[in-house]
Design goal:
This protein is an alpha+beta fold. The protein has one domain: HIT family, subunit A (2-Layer Sandwich), CATH 3.30.428.10. 22% of the residues lie in helices and 16% in strands. A five-stranded antiparallel β-sheet has the order 1-2-3-5-4, with helices on one face. The structure holds adenosine monophosphate and zinc ion.
Length: 141
């Protein structure tokens, strides 16, 4: 006989963020996707974009979601250009590539003149006051 009762919540931190079981600084949201500030930014404004429905990897993303995910990545890029016209868009796939959260996410990482040549080794935590300022700067406009 199958076990009945409530379905256990996913232990995935990005599922928890998508379902609002865990906090995040939401930059953009629609039915399929969510964009939120990275808690350990590589640069000021570093934002993550996820499909709300859990997939580990880009190769697991259902094709019907391609357009919505890419549209949100592009919307975040458009807003990011208020901070810098130069940014990296990235996806880490697998531990050897540096993936530590196994829920597909796109990084949008703005680049600034003082950062030419690489990202900082030390990542500073996002502080709430800075996050609130960034949400205003990256808002719908
Ligand atoms: P990756 O190495 O591509 O798996 O990147 C995971 C990213 O998620 C890192 O940049 C982390 O700083 C970020 N991250 C982890 N947990 C959270 C969280 N709760 N809220 C926002 N960003 C997170
Ligand atoms: Zn997940």
């Amino acid at each position: 006989m199958e076990a009945s009762g409530p379905v256990a919540a996913s232990p995935c931190i990005f599922c928890a963020i998508a379902e609002k079981r865990a906090p995040s600084y939401v930059v953009y949201e629609d039915a399929q996707t969510l964009a939120f500030l990275d808690i350990a930014p590589l640069s000021r404004g570093h934002t993550l974009i996820i499909p709300k429905a859990h997939v580990d990897r880009i190769t697991d993303l259902p094709p019907v979601q391609y357009a919505s995910v890419l549209a949100t990545v592009t919307e975040i890029c458009r807003r990011m250009e208020r901070l810098s016209r130069d940014y990296n868009i990235g996806v880490n796939q697998g531990p050897l590539a540096g993936q530590i959260v196994f829920h597909l996410h796109f990084h949008v990482i703005p680049r600034y003149p003082n950062q030419v040549g690489g990202f900082p080794r030390e990542r500073l935590p996002l502080v709430p006051e800075e996050a609130r300022t960034l949400l205003k700067e990256l808002g719908p406009g």
